[in-house]
Design brief:
Layout (H helix, E strand, L loop, with lengths): L1 E5 L9 E4 L9 E11 L1 H8 L12 E2 L4 E8 L11 E4 L12 E5 L3 E3 L6 H5 L2 H14 L7 E4 L5 H12 L3 E6 L4 H7 L3 E4 L5 H4 L3 E6 L3 H7 L3 E9 L6 H6 L4 H10 L1 H9 L3 E4 L6 H12 L7 E6 L3 H9 L6 E5 L2
Parallel strand pairs: 9-10, 9-12, 10-11, 12-13, 13-14, 15-16
Antiparallel strand pairs: 1-2, 1-4, 3-5, 3-7, 3-16, 5-6, 6-8
Helix pairs in contact: 3-4
Length: about 325
């Protein structure tokens, strides 16, 4: 099968287009012919080697972290899917590889594709929607009437998180650039901070939750908008001891993560705020709930551009500019 992979970790390196063996189908797996895959900042970070300590992949590695496609074969124990089903998924982190023509995944990580989305639209959803769901619903337990600040509202996670937070009944503030104010307001944001004009920490106060996807400065300034008892949840780091335990990291890596997050955890604790790092995980059941919201019209994808499969490197370059509104997708088939 045709695929794009890395042979070694190289910052800003190009993915290699090649022929790879078809994936092995296990008893609980579905084999999916990939029609579209989305391109994520995570792909660039894996390529650059930023996650090689916490995600120890065996190289060469086919990149790609979410997809939409059609089931072509199922393992002996599979009961939920059959050949011909249109599905979408974020594969488990140790079985990524959606920049290819086929992938095998555990059926527990897969969901039926929303009927009202194209393959390209569906492929844009799994990773960012599961991230938003796991942060807002599972970790923050966001409630009606609470206030949440979602940073980078025009990005992949931000565009979905704004919609999900509004569906949950929260008051939503977001940060974005001047060019994207109309976009995030159209998604439901109640307060929009144009970071080119205003400092969010001087405008917002008494928030219950902050979802951070930006750097250290933004993370620390976010403490100033939270009320005591609030939750600061970051998907961009630094990783904390709880994540190290969940990830099954060794003692040395647990120590490193403890040290990396010591500063923000200490500052949070002083202000009576809870800090946590979240790295999303594959979950077909949660994705099924997201499907219901999409089909009901509560969530809609935001796709900036669709690239042809052979232009994956150009798509990755575009994602890294940070200028994409919503998601970038490649049409595989």
């Amino acid at each position: 099968m045709k695929s794009f992979l890395i042979d070694r970790y190289v910052k800003n390196g190009a993915l290699r287009f090649t022929e790879s063996p078809a994936p092995e189908l296990r008893e609980n797996d579905v084999m999916v012919e990939i029609h579209a895959a989305s391109v994520n900042v995570l792909d660039a970070k894996i390529r650059d080697g930023e996650f090689k300590l916490i995600l120890p992949y065996r190289l060469p590695l086919i990149l790609g972290n979410d997809l939409a496609g059609v089931v072509v074969r199922v393992g002996a124990n599979v009961r939920r899917f059959k050949p011909g089903d249109e599905v979408y998924a974020r594969p488990a982190q140790d079985r990524i590889g959606t920049f290819a023509e086929y992938i095998a995944m555990d059926e527990a990580d897969v969901a039926m594709k929303p009927d009202n989305l194209t393959m390209e639209e569906a492929a844009s959803i799994p990773l960012v929607a599961l991230t938003a769901w796991q942060v807002l619903v599972e970790r923050a337990n966001l409630q009606k009437g609470q206030k949440i600040l979602i940073h980078a509202g025009s990005g992949g996670v931000g565009t979905i998180a704004i919609q999900l937070a509004k569906h949950l009944g929260a008051y939503v503030a977001t940060t974005t650039s001047t060019a994207n104010v109309d976009l995030v307001e159209g998604l439901g944001a109640d307060a929009v901070i144009d970071y080119k004009k205003d400092n969010f920490e001087e405008v917002l106060q008494d928030y219950d939750v902050v979802l951070n996807s930006l750097g250290k400065d933004t993370l620390e300034k976010s403490l100033g908008v939270l009320k005591p008892g609030g939750k600061l949840i970051s998907i961009s780091g630094p990783p904390d001891p709880d994540f190290a335990r969940q990830n099954g990291s060794g003692w040395l890596l647990r120590l490193v993560m403890r040290l990396l997050s010591f500063g923000i955890r200490r500052k949070s604790k002083r202000q009576g705020i809870g800090y946590s790092f979240h790295f999303m995980t594959a979950n077909g059941a949660q994705l099924g709930q997201i499907t219901s919201l999409i089909e009901a019209g509560a969530l809609r994808p935001v796709v900036d551009r669709v690239f042809p499969f052979e232009k994956i490197n150009e798509a990755l370059d575009y994602v890294e500019t940070g200028r994409a509104k919503g998601k970038v997708v490649v049409a595989v088939k």
